[in-house]
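Preliminary data (for renewal application), 6-O-phosphono-beta-D-fructofuranose complex.
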Amino acid sequence: MNKIVISTGGGDAPGLNAVIFAVVKSATKLGWDVYGSRHGYRGFLDRDEMVRLTPADVEGITPIGGTILGTTNKGNPFSMPVKNFAGEEKLVNVSDKVMEGFRRMGFGCHIAVGGDGSLEIAHRFAELGMPVIGVPKTIDNDLEATDRTFGFDTAVSTATEALDKLHSTAKSHDRVMVVEVMGRDSGWIALYSGISGGADVILLPELPFDMDAVCAKITENELNGKHYAIVVVAEGAKEEGGEVRNRGKGETGREEALLGGIGEWVAEEIRQRIGKDTRSLVLGHLQRGGSPTTFDRLLALRFGSAAVRMAAEGLFDRMVAWTPPNMSAVLLEDAICCRKQVDLESDKVLTARSIGICLGDKE
Ligand code: F6P
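Predicted structure:
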């Protein structure tokens, strides 16, 4: 092993640069050369998109949000949008070209930083013979096999700060503020920020909600002299018997639908049912931006350096997992098998209920 490559794929998350920093520093210390593939796998297909990364190149990037390598969520090499001469976009399998590029450039290992989609792609390349190590990234914190993904803590801090700010305006106007946060399959951001930010109602993808229960909580507030409320809704939450709201498929090559709209819908239902003034807002990509928190920086740096240690030991087709107090190597296959969801019997959920937060069900 004397030459490795790192790529960042899927939606960005605060802490990506810290992983890159740790990989470059740790690998250089072992005498290896490090390269970065820009925008996911693009560097394997186009030499101009493969950049050499030296310690000087990564100096000072740890606190910076985003990724210096760029990323994409429409760059699956097994189904990549490619334009033909007529300018039409077609989905093409270019995985053999990626394998060819990987071999031609002489890499001994690929460190793939990504969420469930990117890690699944990484596993498929491992099956084709690429020595791959995954690093778990997603603000949604929904990856099985690791206690945490980096980016989540920063997203929760951003959402909590937003909730803190909404209290005063909600109170001044006697309004219900409905805040839609990210969380496609799991309600971790909604739960953590909702409890910490003093929400009255938290709606999770794990627990389909009942609008009667939501309105009953707001009415109960009224009877107790509290004339405003904060409702936190995960984008993947849905009403009992209802569907997750989405805004269509998005760009060609993107595998998941663009979620959104549930916050606005809940706000309108509350207004119609109990006549309260409501406003809704979507925190959206604010949650993915900005400088990583100390927690996320440290976690990301630990992930990056553990990935290099795994490469040195030849532990491929695996993902670095945080299994407190230490890092461990889990099979990529096990890491991508299922989503980590909020356990409705967990201490955090019990805490929410005992401090009077409604979870949209009739307890
Ligand atoms: O997977 C992370 C995530 O932030 C989801 O919560 C959200 O649905 C999605 O990314 C948004 O992706 P995009 O940046 O493509 O809109």
